[in-house]
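Incident log, structure service

09:12 report received: a user says their structure output differs between two submissions of the same chain.
09:20 pulled the input from the user's history:
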Amino acid sequence: MPFSQAEIDEERVHFANVISTFQQYAPYALNANNRRRKDIYTIPIEDRELLESIGYKDRIAVTDKAILANAEFLNQAIANPEIFGHDLEELGQEGEPNDGQTHQHDQPGLPDASPHEHSHSHSHSHGSHSHTHASPRAGSSGGSDGRAKTRKYKPTEHDMDKLRSTLKQLVRDWSKEGKAERDLCYEPVKDALLQHFSDIPEEERRNFRVLVPGAGLGRLAWDVANLGFACQGNEFSHYMLLASFYILNRTDEVNKHTIYPYVHSFSNIANNEGLLRPISIPDVLPSSLPPGSDFSLVAGDFEEIYGAEDGDDAEPQVEQWDAVLTCFFIDTSKNIVNYLRVIHRILAPGGVWINLGPLLWHWENNATNDPSIELTLDEVKALARKIGFEISNERTIDTTYTNNAESMLGYVYHAAFWTATKVV
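09:34 re-ran on a clean worker, output below:
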């Protein structure tokens, strides 16, 4: 079904607001850090002197430098937002000027820009459930030339939380430090995939199509393509899409970038290393996939893209996939019944669905009156069987998610893992 002009306009405004959030990261984060500096002068002078003697004031100053380093990386990531098919000048935002040329999406791994993305954050961080889904529109005011101009969007704390989460996701997916989490989450999924296709010669894996919905920054999908499978990731968050495009398509050496993802909170920090340590990304060269690899990322809502009925304008999806890998994904659904129905429908007969993750239902207690079906783990598995899956290889895997290994606080998920075959 084609999108209405109103939906397209809303999507463009949301994209511009995300770009504005990236652009305003530095002043927002520096202002928060400066609050600490001001607070020093609200306490007695003898207390200030004690704090200075143990290096507190110096740590605040170094944090400023780390924030500016993050800002430099984030500004590089959005240097060419027109690749996503949006002309930000028309919205009065501060994106790169439109050069009037058509930008072809012909690079390996480049997300396929399409107006499906929603502002629902794919975040599993505790203490901040991402339930503010509506995208505020930028306001308009009359310009001196008589044309309407768009006021600069002012990011909310929720917007900035998504951006901070993106920096932590970069650690999880594309750094040496993130390998421990990746080994816990991605290796069991990849091992199960290889086990399912163990009778297929490695040189023939390219004939088997694997879908990774909720692909985030793309590492799991990239890893699967690196194994030789034809792999497509799907992601709806513009924060993730902008960052993943930059890493996958604009990064030409290992450890090219340095970020400081943990500088935004001084709580539960044992020492300066826990707060200020630099993280180098990426730990592998994204362009190092074997020649002839079939790897892509598609931007958009999973249900809208892959749940389309045959005969719609969209690309046919029914029984077109040999495997679907869901890692920390199924709990992003509003209606888990439809998620599982779509997965079942797009799998070829005998195809495999491999799942790992918790059930942190993202739409629970949302403020936007969206539906939210919140099942227990037993109910999810019973539902899967009724829809037509045969579940095996069930186990629990304890894992963290975008965890700061040097923090005094950490949350551990008892994530459910299984392999499910489509019953013919």
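09:41 both user submissions now match this output. Likely a transient worker issue. Closing.
09:42 reviewer note: The first strand starts at residue 111 and ends at 112. Residues 94-123, 125-148 have pLDDT under 50 and may be disordered.
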